[in-house]
Design goal:
The protein is mainly alpha-helical. It has 2 helices and no strands.
Length: 66
């Protein structure tokens, strides 16, 4: 029974390590994207974050008749 608990504990520790690696990789991607947004804002004079929050136009608004 003790071996079973030790085995389960080791499995859980490995799972935690794996999840920490995944979280670390995701954080790197987030940091990279935020840096790219900052660069676009500085170099291209466009605010991507602001543009993401606005709705896109769907067209002229006129319905097509069949």
């Amino acid at each position: 029974m003790k071996d079973s608990q030790v085995h389960k504990l080791k499995e859980l520790e490995e799972k935690v390590k794996k999840l920490e690696r995944v979280v670390g990789q995701k954080q790197i991607k987030i940091d990279y994207r935020e840096k790219m947004i900052d660069i676009a804002k500085e170099d291209l004079d466009t605010d991507i974050k602001k543009n993401l929050n606005t709705s896109q136009s769907i067209g002229s608004g006129k319905a097509k008749k069949k």
